[in-house]
Amino acid sequence: MKRFRFDQQAGHVINQYDSINAAISRIVRTQGPVAIGCIRLGPKGVLGYHPAVVNQLFLVVEGEGWVRGKDDSEPVPIRAGQAAFWEAGEGHESGSEEGMVAMVIEGEGLNPESYMPLLG
């Protein structure tokens, strides 16, 4: 067995897109179509508005905050146990007042509607 870290100290600060107090720990990046990372937003953290390179699923595992897509004029609340999905090319951002941790899965064929229930 090998053990690995993906805690905050193992991550890298995200400075792009006017982001504030945001970091990512890469989990998997393959030669193929899937990448997985762990995003950490600290208090008052923002991952600034930018287009999704490929389909992206943002799974909140700790804390709460907000997300916004291209069609949202106001931030939409999100919390642990919920996820947001952006299609390739869709502009989006996320943030948190108190802090939030999310797993991010990116891939061309990603389609969470086929296996996850939608929020009402």
Annotation keywords:
120 residues; Jelly Rolls; mainly beta
What is the strand and helix layout of this fold?
Elements: E1 12-13, E2 20-29, E3 34-51, E4 56-69, E5 76-79, E6 83-86, E7 91-96, E8 100-107
Antiparallel strand pairs: 1-2, 2-3, 3-7, 3-8, 4-5, 4-6, 4-7, 4-8
Structure description:
This is Cupin. The chain has 120 residues and is mostly beta strands. It contains no helices and eight strands. The protein has a single domain, classed as Jelly Rolls (Sandwich), CATH 2.60.120. Strands 1, 2, 3, 4, 5, 6, 7 and 8 form an eight-stranded antiparallel β-sheet that branches. Strand 2 (20-29) and strand 3 form a beta hairpin. The N and C termini lie far apart (41 Å). The mean pLDDT is 88.
Q: At the third CATH level, what is the topology name?
A: Jelly Rolls
- Helical content stands at under 10%
Radius of gyration: 14 Å
Largest sheet: 8 strands, antiparallel
**Unreliable parts:** none
The number of domains is: 1
What is the overall pLDDT average? 88
Helix-and-strand structural type = mainly beta
Topology pattern, helix = H, strand = E: EEEEEEEE
Assign the CATH architecture. Answer: Sandwich
Characterize the overall form.
globular
Helix count from the secondary structure assignment: 0
Percent of residues in beta strands: over 45%
Query: What would CATH call the class?
Result: Mainly Beta
Brief sketch in words of this structure:
This protein has strands at 12-13, 20-29, 34-51, 56-69, 76-79, 83-86, 91-96, 100-107. It contains no helices and eight strands.
